[in-house]
Structure formats: structure tokens, C-alpha cells
Amino acid sequence: MSFREIEMTLQPLRRATIGVLGAVAMTALGVLPAAAQAPAPAPAGASILDAIKARGTLVCGTNTGLAGFAQPDSQGVWRGFDVEYCRALAAAIFNDPNKVRYVPTTAQSRFTALQSGEVDILARNTTWTLSRDTSLGLDFAAVNFFDGQGFMVKASAGVKTAKELSGATICVQPGTTTEQNLTDWARANNVQFTPVVIERLEELVSAYASNRCDAFTTDVSGLAATRASQPNPAEHLILPDVISKEPLGPLIRHGDQRLVDLVRWTHYALVAAEELGVNQANVAQMAASDTRPEVQRMLGKNGGLGQMLGVSNDWVVNVIKATGNYGEIFARHLQPIGIQRGPNALWTTPGGQQYAMPFR
Amino acid sequence: MSQSATDPRQFRAPPKKPLRLSWADERVRAIFWQVLIVGIVIAVVWWLVRNTQHNLEVRRIATGFGFLNREAGLPIGEALIEYTPASTYFRALTVGVLNTLKVAVVGIILATILGTLVGIARLSKNWLLAKVAAVYVEVIRDIPLLLQLLFWYTLLQGLPGPRQALNPVTGVFLSNRGLKLPFLDWEVGHSWGLMAFVVGCCGLYLFAKAMRRRQMQDGQPRPIWPAAIGFLIGLPALAWWLGGAPVGIEWPALRGFNFQGGMSVSPEYFALLVGLTTYTAGFIAEIVRAGILAVAQGQWEAAQALGLRPGVVLRQIVLPQALRVIVPPMTSQFLNLTKNSSLAVAIGYQDIVSIANTTLNQTGQAIEGIAIIMLVYLTISLSISLFMNWYNSRIALVER
User: Fold this and answer.
1) Nearest CA to B395 among B315, B341, B337, B336?
2) Predominant location of this chain (chain B) (predicted)?
3) In a domain? residue A356
4) What residues of B are in contact with residue A36 (Cβ under 8 Å)?
5) Is B253 helix (H, G, I), strand (E, B) or coil?
6) Which residues neighbour A229 within 8 Å (Cβ) at sequence distance 6 or greater?
């Protein structure tokens, strides 16, 4: 068959293809300018809270696995301090703490996941800083854990304070405030160090464990969690130096003040419940019989506070039934791995900083 | 039927017809469709850009490249140029690009050498050698690269700590902190020698070209190795001697936690380099084998019958024909190796992806960060492609 003959046979086929392509192109051309004129109602402009309610589940960004804060158990169920905040919020919105889908995020991917709407809320031991609050377009709701950065070394290294680490190799996670605090601290104290920067926490900890690094640095709570998960915790020493302030808390993206309010007041509800002696066991009975006015307002007997937040008036009862109060959450997840209340005790105890705004 | 295709009269250009503004005119239709398609592409791009801008504004996320001049504050373990955490993001990203190039260039060279050796070994008449090469290729090709990188990295972490470092030769220390080698205590004389070496390479190239021209005229082959020794060894040595003949050597020594001084190769770089090299060499070996097998046995026999020595047969007869098959797929392998180097993030080698990721995380400007990564890889890949296409056209057989 000659070239020309092939050409002849293909002719009708080509016409048909052009016809179809043309039709598609015409449609696209007609639709596109209209779409461009009015960019679809931006998801950020609409209420994220309404979107969560319509979807029926809360999508919660968590750590990929940090003992005590967020880690799947042997059944694959997520457990931990941060996870309880997701459960509490789901209980407030849906009266069902299990309507949560967990999305593990790395230190580097977490903000992009939140900005792009892949997750509704980030409860992932994240430090509240000015630039994150502004130029990253995020809103921190509350501080649920006051932390600070420290160092962990092998007990056999004989190091007693952080300043003795000059010349050391230090393992650090990229994209964290930890990384920047470390360089700030090293410059201020004239400490030379070689960084080993690995994104996945598991790989980083294994590099530290196998002696690739002399020290591992992160928030003290994270150090305690890591130390607890080592085969022999006694081999590791957390140095007394705390080189930064790390206020950790849940956050959402800019654009929905109602959701910020709800997350913030869920945290205050957990703290206030501890202040007022309301816990998982007695919450139902307290709601029915406690006569203190603030308890009655908080647990929805009167005042209509829940409605003001856009949820049912007995939302705090649902939250406390699901997770217990702040002290119970802390005792359940963090005290077993050796983290003391310290600054996270109630403000009524000396040194405590957890303080709930009035339910009024 | 086939005569009609070869008949030159069939291919005479048709007479030019004036352009009629009608659907019946093929050229009018062609222009219409092209304008339409370009229009659609522009509209889609415009819509995407506008949509992105709008959403960034709504979420009040910062935009623009202003952050490049801000202080980075991120620690970088190994840098080819001076870097401190007080440097700017721009400098940090430059360090990342250089780190990517460092592993890509060295990786490409080593993978080509290793791959060629394995490819030839697989064709060897030695049964054991051929089978070992075959097993190497099959094993390496069938395991995901990420796993191989983690394997090498874990293996290196199994080395003893710096205090118990292996010390096979005086001054060479191998520990889980990397390989430490003694290195020249760099002085001006070394720089002179290095410059003289570069000049010598250029000189040797020109000299070889001139000799080749003379050979073309009178048919006499002229050895160039005496000149090569002069250009590549004599000239740098002379420059080094004129520069004061420095002989100082910096020895690595254990001070505090780590070795100080000398030259060091970090475990991260080494694991990445070994992983990329061995993985890509598996593919290159097959390409080389295919290239050699593509040259018909008759070519060898004919050349030998003419009395040419085996080396000359390989260089002048077989390789030019084999390279025609080898070079185009080789380009793809070089591009793969370069792009695979982005797996460095998994084992903590700070290449451009790792540093740009941290940058976009700290500044929150994901779109700019990803754009920078894309631009860097596009530039490197296009450069490799252009160079290989140039090389391909240079070595291509002149076909008549």
C-alpha cells in the first residue's frame, strides 16, 4: 500500500476526530471565560465548619507517629494527646468522637496540607509563631501544651549541659521551629555543630539511635516520647537546658472565625472542666444536678452558649463524655511516658499556666 | 506498489495555490485549528493563575520571591560554597543546587564506567563473569531505588562510632560519621597547578587535532602520548613548583566529638552516590550490551580480515556503530539519575529538594518553592539533553 492510499483510507477517520475535538474545544471555550470571570466560590470564603458538617466527618492532620501525642495502636486506632483534641472537636460538632478521619502529616507537609484544604484542622504539636499566624495564612486557636526545646544525648557520652555539645553532630527535623532555634542558639552561644537533617521522624530517630548523631534535638515533650520508645530508655539522657519557648496548639487556616472560636472554646471547655471538677465519670450527673451557675452554663442547662458557637447547647457534656477533661487526657497519654504537668498544670497550682476563659 | 513510493515524480511539490478564505481550503482550516488550540491553552493557564491568585489572597498567604533575600536560619551539613545559617534563602538554595549537581555529575560518570564494565562483562566468554554480571543487573534493576538507598544508609550507620573508627591506612578513618581522608593543605601553588592542568587539557586537545590533520595529509600515524605527559603532568607540575612547591598535608584528627581537618565524605552523600550509581549502572549495562550486540558479527570479521588490530576494530569499526544505539537511551538514564537524586530527602542528604522543601515550609510559599525546584530540574535536564544531542549528532555515522 502506498503512502497516498493510506492517506485516502485515513481521511474519514481524521475528519471525525477533528469534528469531535472541535466540539470539545468549542464547549471549553464557551465555558472557560465564564468560569474565569467568577472564580468558583472559594472554599476559604465559605464556612469550613459548614463544609465539615455537610461532609459528616472531621479531617484531622496529625503527626506521623509520636508516642503520647498521636500514634496508631495495635488495632490501628489513633491514640494520643493531640488525637483527643480531634475527638473532642468531633464530639462538639457531631456528638460522636469517632467521626474523624486522621491524616498523618510530616513536619514539612503539614502546613501545605492545611492551606490546601486537605485537612480541616491540624492537631500536631505545632508551635505558635508570628510568621505562621500571618504569612502562612493560619490561625492558632489555643495553646494546649506549653513546651520548650531540649537535647537528648547518650548517657555514655558524658555530656552534662548543652554548651558542651560544641563540635557535635546533631539530628534535627527539617521545617520545624526546632531547626531554626538550634541555629539561633548555636550562633548566640558560639557552638559549632554539624546538622543531620532527615524529614521522617522514624528515620531521624534511628540515625540518632545508631550513633550517626551525638545529640537529638526537639521539643522536650517529643524527647520524652522518643526516649520512652527506645529499647532501653535509661541509656539516653535529656539535658537540663531548655533553649526556646514552644507553645503548641491546634490550628486551622484563615477564613472561618466560627471554627477558630469552636476549637478555642473546646480547649477552654476541657480546662474549665478540670477547674470545676467535671470529669468523664461524673459529667452526666453534674449536668443534671450541679447547681453552680458556671457549671450550668457550661454544661448547657441555661445560657445558650452552645448555640452562640453554632453547636448544640449540651456540647461540653458530649466532649467530656468522649475524652474526659484536660487533666484526664494528660494523665492518660502523657504521664505514662514520663511527662509531668509542669507549666501545663492549672493556673491555680504554682507554676501552672493552663487557664480557661470564663463561660459566660 | 512500492515503485510508486520511490518514483521521484510523486514527490514533486504541488504548485502554490493562493490562500482562499474558505473552509474548503486546507491551510485555512489548519490555521483555524491551531489558533483555537493555542487559545484554549492560554485560557486554561490564565484561569489557573487567576484562580490561584484569588485563593492566595482570600487565605492571606504571602506571595512573591521577596523571601529569597531574608535570612534562612536553616542548618546545612555540607556545602560547596561558604554557608552559615545567617545566609539568605537564595544562598541556601544555591547550596542545594550545587549539592544536587555534585551527586548527579559524579553519579553519571561512575554509573557510565560501572555500567559499561558490567555490560561488557555480561557478554564475556568467561561463564562465571557473565553470570555474575547477569545476576547483578537482574537484582539491582528489580529493587526499588528508595529501598536500595535506605539499605546503603543503614549499612553505613552500622559502622563503628568516631572513637572506634576503622583506620585501614594512616590518615584514613572510616566511621558512621563518614570517610575522612588526608587532604592537601590548600595553598596558592595548588591553585596554579590546577589552572595549569585545565590549560594543559585544552592544549592537548588542540595538539591532537593538529596531529590528526597531519595524518590525514600524509597517512603517517603520530603518537601523542609524549605530548599528553607533557601537557597533563609536566605543565601542572611546573606551575606547582613555580607557585612555591607547597607540600603540606592536612591530616584528619579526632578532636572532641568528631574528626576535624582533612577531606570528608558524609555517609548521606556516600549512600546516595552508591545507590544511584549501582542502580543506574544496571540499566546502562543492558544498554551497552544491546549496543554491542547490535553490531553484526560480520563487521568484526571483516575488520579483522583487513588486518586491523582488535583495539582499532573496537574503536574505529564497532564502537561508532554501537554508540548509535547506545547514546539516545543513555541520555534517558542520565536524566533519570539526576531526577532520582531527589530521593536524597529520605536519607537526609541536603539537595535542592530538601532545602527548597524546608524553605517553603518556613515561608509558607509552596507555589514559589515548587516553581524553584521545577526550574532547577528543568534547567539541569535540558542541559544534559542538549549536550547529549550534540554529542549524538557528532558521533552519528554519516549515512548516505
Assistant:
1) B315
2) membrane
3) no
4) 43, 46-47, 50-51
5) strand
6) A67, A205
Tens digit of pLDDT for each residue in A134-147?
A: 888 899 999 999 99
Contacts of B360 in chain A (CB under 8 A): 112
* Same domain (yes/no): A154, A136: no
Q: Which residue of A has its CA nearest to B153?
A: A207
pLDDT score for A35: 42
Q: Which of A113, A111, A116, A112 is nearest to A127 (CA)?
A: A111
Q: Looking at residue A11, what is its pLDDT?
A: 56
- Chain B residues close to A35, C-beta within 8 Å: 47
CA distance linking residue B257 with residue B153, whole number of Å: 21
- Residue A136: its pLDDT value, please? 87
Q: Is B192 helix (H, G, I), strand (E, B) or coil?
A: helix
* Structure-block grid coordinates of residue A211: 550513633
B184: left (phi over 0), alpha (psi -120 to 50) or beta: beta
Residues A237 and A94 in one domain: no
Q: Please say which residue of A225, A246, A267 terminates a domain.
A: A246
In 3-state terms, what secondary structure has residue A252?
strand
What cell numbers appear for A328 in the block?
A: 484526664
Residue window 277-336, chain B: list those with CB within 8 Å of chain A.
none
The rounded distance, in Å, linking the Cα atoms of A237 and A157 is 10
What is residue A203's three-state secondary structure? helix
Which CATH architecture fits B89-143+267-395?
Answer: Orthogonal Bundle (1.10)
B window 195-254, beta carbon within 8 A of A: none
Total domains in the fold of chain A: 2
Residue B202 pLDDT > 70: yes
Domain boundaries, given as residue ranges, for chain B:
89-143+267-395, 194-245
The verdict on a CB contact (< 8 Å) between B40 and A254 is no
Interface contact B76, partner A, CB < 8 A:
yes
Pairing state between β A149-154 and B178-181? unpaired
Query: Which residue in chain A is spatially nearest to B351 when comparing CA positions?
Result: A197
Model confidence at A253, pLDDT cuts 50, 70, 90, reads very high
A275 assigned to some structural domain: yes
**Would you call B260 an interface residue with chain A, using a CB distance cutoff of 8 Å?**
yes
What is the structure's pLDDT at B398?
64
Residue A72 in domain? yes
Q: Say if residue A187 is in the same domain as residue A139.
A: no
Q: What pTM was computed for the model? A: 0.77
Task: Identify the CA nearest to A61 among candidates A332, A319, A252, A267.
Answer: A252
**Which residue of chain B is at minimal alpha-carbon distance from A186?**
B85
Amino acid identity of residue A129, one-letter, is: T
Q: Which residue of A has its CA nearest to B39?
A: A29
Q: Distances in Å between the alpha carbon of A312 and those of A95, A254, A269, A324?
A: 9, 24, 14, 18
pLDDT at residue B312, rounded to an integer: 85
* B115-154 residue pLDDT tens: 999 998 998 889 999 999 999 999 999 999 999 999 999 9
Q: Which of A18, A108, A136 minimises the CB distance to B358? A: A108
How much is the pLDDT for A8?
Answer: 54
The residue range of the domain holding A226 is 148-246
CA atoms of A164 and A240, how far apart (whole Å): 12
Cα–Cα distance, A168 to A174 (Å, whole number):
18
Beta strands in chain B (DSSP E): 173-175, 178-181, 183-184, 249-250, 253-255, 258-260, 263-265
Question: Three-state DSSP class for A145?
Answer: strand
